[in-house]
Amino acid sequence: MEMWLFSAWDLLAFLTLLSSTVAGEELFDVTVWPEWPTVEAGQALWINCSTNCTHPEKGGIETRNINKAVWKEETHWKAFYLADIAQDSHIICYFTCSGTQKKKSANITVYRPPEQVIFNLQPAWVIVGKNFTLTCHVPNVGPLENLTLTLLQGTEMLHRQTFKTVSKVLQDAWLVFNVTARKEDDKSNFSCYAELDLRPHSEHFFNASSALKMLEIFEPSQNNQMLITIIITTLLLLIFVVTVCLCFVYGQHWRKQRTGGYGVLAAWRIHRNRCV
Fold this sequence. Notes:
The chain is of the alpha+beta class and about 280 residues long. It has two domains: about 1-110, Immunoglobulins (Immunoglobulin-like), CATH 2.60.40.10; about 120-220, Immunoglobulins (Immunoglobulin-like), CATH 2.60.40. The protein is about 30% helix and about 45% strand. It is built from three helices and 17 strands. It has helices at about 1-25, 220-260, 265-275, and strands at about 30-35, 40, 45-50, 60, 65-75, 75-85, 90-95, 100-110, 120, 125, 130-140, 145-155, 155-160, 170-180, 190-195, 205-210, 215-220. The strands form four sheets. Strands 10, 12, 13, 15, 16 and 17 form a six-stranded mixed sheet that branches. Strands 1-3-6-5 form a four-stranded antiparallel sheet, with no helix packed on it. The protein has a four-stranded mixed sheet with strand order 2-8-7-4, with no helix packed on it. The model is unreliable at about 1-25 (pLDDT under 50).
């Protein structure tokens, strides 16, 4: 009886060990490092694919439109060198263990920092109460959803704008903002500040600023308004005089055509000679 009981326990232990080994092989994991890969446009990136499978049968990486090469590898991991990455891409690491294949995917984010911030102020000279336009342009930057453009008056924020990416390729970012001129805005400096923040998935943070542009405000006084009124009145009178003169000239020309080349004086002389 004790022998049978001992054999039963041995069999149970053996089956438990066998089932746990098989389950362990089936429940293996595949990991990708870095988990959130980022790379500057046109540069290269290292990707590590690994597994906790005891005896992996096969492993590799799937990419599209990216040149790749295995740089180093061991039983449980493979390091791949991805070169000349131009746009956002999707990669998949895979391993096969005990006939079962598992995959782990990651998205590569391609970025380009704001190297040039072009700022324009139009017009640079404006009357109080009139609008002036601030334009900020950052060429060939990305990803746009990580970009923020801020318009500044001195150190004070006027307007801030974020963006949405509509394409995987690098794009230009534009910000146009209209402002009503105030008297206290005279001699103010305006600028544009750009920041590309890839955190928390990456430690990269980039920023750049435009050159300063100064605004001049013109406030018309009472004397200036009177001078403007006099100038306008003079122009209207001049237009009236020129119009009258033109009407007289055209009237004489029309009358000459109606009476012929002799005119009134020639007709009177002919009539007098006949009477004599």
